[in-house]
Design a protein that fits this description.
Layout (H helix, E strand, L loop, with lengths): L4 E8 L2 H13 L6 E6 L5 H16 L6 E4 L4 H18 L3 E7 L5 H9 L4 E5 L4 H8 L15 H11 L3 H6 L3 E4 L10 E3 L3 H10 L2 E10 L11 H17 L3 E6 L5 H9 L3 E4 L4 H7 L2 E8 L4 H8 L5 E4 L2 H6 L12 H12 L3 E3 L4
Parallel strand pairs: 1-2, 1-4, 2-3, 4-5, 5-6, 6-7, 8-9, 8-11, 9-10, 11-12, 12-13
Helix pairs in contact: 4-6, 8-11
């Protein structure tokens, strides 16, 4: 029997995915791979900013060859294009053993590839904080599909279309994971991502950690409608006052989806703002001055930057639910999701993260 050649297919949709894939490639001395990007082609300003950051990160990490899967808005069109992609991968797999890296435990199409490529290797990389959520909600219970998402009528139809009669098998079939959180939970299929290439870059740049400099990393909650702009402004003004009282200078760091309008409003209210065109993991690994304090509402940065800078940066968590409970305004309700709640729980219980109560 002819031995099949190994072929590597890697999927990404964000700069963090690219960082994880780069680390995996370097660690395993991968010579060849196909990189497929899942992107949205919309005219919205936040998407344009996201695309810009994606392409700059591709260039910085020296990814020269890649293909783009432009994700359509229409579900039927998306399903047809996904089916076409599966056919192309099937053809590639005729003479090759395919090894996949995928980025989102919740993504039904990426999960469905395990149905079509039964003998292939699948490795899940970090998608923000959701790897930790997936571990706690599913994988530690030996469940390897987000089964709660398939209970509605739409979910049941999608389940049939994407998984056919393989649902039970896939639900019970373990997935390998390559994650920065591997040292924080028990999973025999988890491999630690030590972000070694960024750690080496940071050591080479010899950046100085400033005890007087604070970064408050931005959230996407206003942009996704989870809170109002005036709510976040109230929070950030309180954080700024807190750090001024500590005789430190705080900067609000915008995300790739952060609008210019929001940053302008913050600046008009005395908040220093800054926005980078690449992920902070890359930016700080090359800077001469590193913030000694990073404040978040719960973020992957709490873990990734701790790894890169050997726990030399101090991290702080603000529980926004508690903050708004003590405010006098009536309409200050916020809509947190599953990831927000897990990030809050993780941050509150971590010995390396200090909770600060803003007023």
């Amino acid at each position: 029997m002819i031995q099949k050649k190994s072929s590597n297919i890697y999927f990404a949709a964000s700069p963090l995915h690219l960082i994880c894939i780069k680390e995996y490639i370097i660690r395993n001395n991968i010579k060849e791979h196909d990189l497929i990007l899942f992107l949205h082609n919309t005219k919205k300003k936040d998407n344009e900013n996201a695309l810009k950051q994606m392409f700059l990160t591709l260039n910085k990490l020296n990814f020269k060859r890649y293909k783009i899967f432009w994700t359509p808005k229409m579900k039927l069109m998306r399903y047809l294009l996904e089916t076409l992609l599966i056919i192309k991968l099937k053809i590639k797999g005729i003479n090759n053993k395919l090894n996949f890296i995928f980025f989102d435990f919740r993504n039904i199409f990426l999960q469905s590839l395990r149905r079509h490529f039964k003998g292939s290797t699948f490795i899940l990389i970090d998608d923000g904080f959701y790897t930790y959520v997936a571990q706690e909600n599913y994988m530690k219970k030996n469940i390897f599909l987000p089964i709660e998402r398939y209970k509605s009528l739409e979910g049941k139809i999608s389940k049939l279309l994407y998984f056919g009669f393989s649902f039970k098998r896939l639900k019970m079939t373990p997935i390998k994971i390559f994650t920065i959180y591997a040292d924080e939970f028990s999973n025999p299929n988890a491999e630690m991502n030590n972000l070694s290439f960024l750690k080496s870059k940071a050591n080479a740049s010899k950046g100085q950690i400033s005890d007087r400099l604070v970064y408050f990393t931005g959230t996407g909650m206003v942009e996704r409608g989870a809170m109002k702009l005036e709510q976040e402004l109230s929070l950030i003004k309180s954080a700024n006052k807190y750090w001024i009282d500590q005789e430190k200078t705080m900067y609000y760091v915008g995300k790739r989806s952060t609008s210019k309008r929001k940053l302008d409003v913050f600046e008009e209210n005395g908040i220093n703002t800054i926005k980078f065109e690449m992920p902070l993991e890359i930016i700080l690994s090359e800077r001469s001055q590193i913030p000694g304090h990073i404040c978040t509402l719960g973020s992957t940065l709490q873990k990734s930057l701790s790894i890169i800078f050997d726990n030399k940066i101090k991290f702080y968590f603000v529980n926004i639910s508690n903050f708004f409970l003590v405010q006098k305004e009536i309409d200050l309700r916020i809509n947190t999701d599953e990831v927000d709640n897990f990030a809050a729980s993780y941050s509150s219980s971590s010995s390396n993260i200090k909770t600060i109560n803003l007023k």
